[in-house]
Amino acid sequence: MGVPILLKQVLVTGATGMVGRSLVNALLKKGYCVRALVRKKVDEDILPARVEQVTGDITDAASVCSAMAGVCFVFHLAARLHVNNPSPDQKEQYQGVNVTGTLNVIEAASSARVDRIIFFSTISVYGAGKNNQAVDEGSETMPDTLYARTKLKAEQLIDQFCADRSGAPEVTILRLASVYGAGVKGNYRLMINAVQKGGFIFLGNGNNCRTLVHEEDVAAAAILAAEHPMARGKIYNVTDGTTHTVKAIVGAIARALERQPLELHVHETIIRAILNLLELSLFQGLPGVEKIGYMINKMNEHVAVRGEKIQQDLGFVPQWGLDRGMKQALKEGRSKP
């Protein structure tokens, strides 16, 4: 017989983020002993008292090693996350956390003879889609942001490490769709705020696609990837099983908030004219110009990704559709202090 789950020690990096907290709660519910590598200890409203908190930094190899003792699974979420139009001086931070930090994790896990690492990557490694065509795990990667490039570099580092080292831990890579939940941030938080205020401006007709996944579905997929023998060495996209237009997402947010926002549409020709204008040398160097152009491009791009592989291989069944997920996320988000 194998070791009972309640005796298995797992390590979670990035445990204090939205996805990390959902994963920690799911692991505790299943009976795992959970250890979290944190930069500073947090209160019980962030991580339950049953979680063993080990202070350290993902970029410091020694602190990663100290957290790894006796661990069977590592869930590596810690990352320098996506920000809109990062400045050039942030490149070193992305490299340090996303690439060097991942190397520290896999080297420490190898030395500690960890069974499996679940590495959380992103569908952003595929880049923006073309004509709403959905891509899968075999599609070409064309990352177009600093965040996506460093996450793909970390994936490649993992592949090379496992190829070069005998006895290296098994690794499963999860490429997450845009994750939403009670602590959602970024562009989706901007969308929610706009609907709450009574209006939303669509850049184009709103039919460009997005691929999403609820935080609790991510946690379920990650545990499956750790426990299932077929997940060894695989890459999986993790989605809610479908793609959604921006118009549908705004509609789900409005229904969750019980609002009927005013919808304004900016024609694509006007969008292109604005972008062309912003590219003129007359405007270069003005505060906010690059950020505006970047935001327009991101809001108007297609991101459509297929998630059938993890469903077929591991039996993963997403539980959170868009309407149910938004209602739960926004309800819990409003109840938080």
UniProtKB/TrEMBL annotation:
<dbReference type="InterPro" id="IPR036291">
    <property type="entry name" value="NAD(P)-bd_dom_sf"/>
</dbReference>
<protein>
    <submittedName>
        <fullName>GalE2</fullName>
        <ecNumber>5.1.3.2</ecNumber>
    </submittedName>
</protein>
<dbReference type="GO" id="GO:0003978">
    <property type="term" value="F:UDP-glucose 4-epimerase activity"/>
</dbReference>
<dbReference type="InterPro" id="IPR001509">
    <property type="entry name" value="Epimerase_deHydtase"/>
</dbReference>
<dbReference type="InterPro" id="IPR050177">
    <property type="entry name" value="Lipid_A_modif_metabolic_enz"/>
</dbReference>
<dbReference type="Pfam" id="PF01370">
    <property type="entry name" value="Epimerase"/>
</dbReference>
<feature type="domain" description="NAD-dependent epimerase/dehydratase">
    <location>
        <begin position="10"/>
        <end position="238"/>
    </location>
</feature>
<keyword id="KW-0413">Isomerase</keyword>
